[in-house]
Write the structure tokens for this entry.
Amino acid sequence: MSTLAQTMMNARPADSGLAGPGELDRYPYGESHTADRVAPPAWDVPDTELGRAGRRAAGSRGRGLHGQLVQQLGQMIVSGDLGADRPLVPEEIGQRFEVSRTVVRESLRVLEAKGLVSARPNVGTRVRPVSDWNLLDPDIIEWRAFGPQRDDQRRELSELRWTIEPLAARLAAGHGREDVQQRLADMVEIMGHALAQGDGITYARADAEFHTLLIQLAGNRMLEHLSGIVSAALQVSGGPVTGCDRPNDVSVTHHARIVDALAAGDSNGAETAMRQLLIVHPEVERVVPAPREH
């Protein structure tokens, strides 16, 4: 085993921020339903379950006050608990979460950059419609994936991966960078060892590294810009969406076939192997197109 592979295999699970397979149900996110909500924002209700869950989630990520508030408000907006029916008043937010106006102001600026809110003179800060959100932002992907919209988010991510990764695999076969191909082979080796040891965290880390490297190897900067989407998709997986979501021997085999095709410069083989990887589970067929013939 290479030095890189050995290092990743020896890493402690706590070192990884990736969610392992099946961890979705353990994510501390308080779900709610639109029909059950009342008009006042959640911070007007004494210590709601959503508030407690949000603080636990933020704290578990080691974020500061600013990051925690962005996480909390982002979850509440995406889940629908904060709507456009009334402005987001910084003073109210500061009092509810016991943070300074500076922290509130900076947090709202981050949310505005993500397209979640807008600030206008004489109108205040309000939640923007979903059509204005930056749905490719990793934070928004995460908030949607762990909230009431989790099923839609998974489906959309799966469909998006089908437009990105087979093409990336095809393009990558034309770039004979031995160093990157060796790293891809290392990741497959790590995944195999992790699977044998039942180490879902290490498997997930190697899987995410594999797909990120593959997109970078494609040599297309616009595709490379989208690698964060694939990484986010792998981190929030928790249902039978693709062959990456439930580690097994078949999944490892398909990853290995991609590496072999890349080494042989076989663009058709690399694309086909990627499509096979993304449709390992039969239930995926209802949400992704059939493989193309060349």
Observations:
- Residues 12-62, 281-294 have pLDDT under 50 and may be disordered.
- The beta strands are 117-120, 124-127.
- The longest strand covers residues 117-120.
